[in-house]
Amino acid sequence: MKRLLIENIKVITMEGDYIIPKGYIYIEDNKIVKVKEGVYEGERDNFEVIDGKGCVALPGFINCHTHIPMTLLRGYGEGLPLMRWLNEKIWPFEARLTEEDIYNGALLGIIEMIKSGTTSFVDMYFREDTIAKACRRANIRGFLGSPIIGDMWERQIDETLSLYDEFKEDDLIKIFIAPHSPYTCSFETLKKVGEIARNYKLPIHIHIAETKDEVNIIREKYNKTPFEVCKDAGLYDENKVIAAHCVYLNDDDIIMVKNYDFTVVYNPQSNMKLASGVAPIVKMMENGINVALGTDGASSNNNLNMIDEMKSASLLQKLSFNDATALSAYDTLKLATVNAAKAIGMEDKLGKIKEGFLADIILIDFNKPHLNPPTDIYSNIVYAANGSEIKTVIINGKVVLKDYKLLDIKENETILNANQSFIKVIERL
Ligand SMILES: [Zn+2]
Asked: 277 alpha carbon to ligand 1 midpoint, in Å?
């Protein structure tokens, strides 16, 4: 058995607002066995010990919506309007990606996420088998869904099911089913996806109502809202649904989706950058809808940093509702931890530092000028931190980042490989 002790540590448990001012976390294999105030007094033979002095422990962040290999497209085709950007830049580039490029882009994104405190992510991209390899290489949790889009949907559903078969016993990888959106999938596709999800108990990861254009296209085709179309296709029935964006939803949509196991993933930076609009998150939360947080892909953000995203998430709601009390720092932190764990069906295993939970823990180094004085610890993390304070990261009981250094992955080599992939794709254009 592997034993890990983190001592001299302040712990934000995310169980209500319970904070342990100074204590320890004792981990056996991949589970948290004890979280307590004071000093660990048991034996210490064969223990790995981390001194948490000056640090704050927090559950690792769960990025609930991204397209991880799109790190390769970071900064590519900037400044174009959405449709020209997609047609002239993004889609031709993506059509030329090889399996090796996807691996290189995924690993680059994964190390960026680990270094900024993310320990799990929900992904939608082609070649999730390859992305799974990068997850295993880095020891990060991946909730992976291969996109189902357009006319090839039957083959894509088969691909999802073979991925499900391959990874159903995996510790770190879980397969989701990922219909791209109600405007890129036919009604028949959405119906079939709902059925398959029910039969195999696969959570659904989808984009809904990202832009006004989408709402108009759906209105013209069905005379309904995007949320109604998905409902009428039976997508929500007995299924767990994780819906990215949800920028445009009306009061009836809100009342409708709250009756289902439905999580909205708020992507504030992507929505601002693409001028999509502001999702009415405060209103959804007031109505009891579960809301989580995502970065979206690096081509529309342009980073995968959840601390950065939390700040935008909170500020944008305050501005949008003209209310300085809207979406507090603590509630924002919940979007990235507790609510996200609920979204992926792991609320009894992830999102809190709690005895019996999986050991996905980050240590934030508070010995930084911009985090002092530590008057309000939640607001310092959400508004003052920037991700560069993540000193140590533990995923599934394994230390993957220690004293700011990745233990198992060569950072420089990963950066070099990704940059070379980018150059090769450009040469193929
Ligand atoms: Zn997306």
From this structure: 14
205 known member of a binding site:
no
- Look up the CATH superfamily of 66-343: Metal-dependent hydrolases (3.20.20.140)
The sign of the CA dihedral 341, 342, 345, 349 is: positive
> How far, in Å, CA of 75 to CA of 94, rounded?
14
370 known ligand binder: no
Q: Return per-residue pLDDT of the chain as tens, 429 residues.
A: 999 999 999 999 999 999 999 999 999 999 999 999 999 998 888 999 999 999 999 999 999 999 999 999 999 999 888 778 888 999 999 999 999 999 999 999 999 999 999 999 999 999 999 999 999 999 999 999 999 999 999 999 999 999 999 999 999 999 999 999 999 999 999 999 999 999 999 999 999 999 999 999 999 999 999 999 999 999 999 999 999 999 999 999 999 999 999 999 999 999 999 999 999 999 999 999 999 999 999 999 999 999 999 999 999 999 999 999 999 999 999 999 999 999 999 999 999 999 999 999 999 999 999 999 999 999 999 999 999 999 999 999 999 999 999 999 999 999 999 999 999 999 999
| Residue 252 known to bind ligand | no
Q: How far is CA 181 from the centre of its chain?
A: 18
Q: Which candidate, 374, 381, 359, 336, places its Cα nearest to that of 6?
A: 359
In CATH, the number for domain 3-59+357-406 is: 2.30.40.10
Are 3-59+357-406 and 66-343 in the same CATH fold?
Answer: no
180 is in an annotated binding site: yes
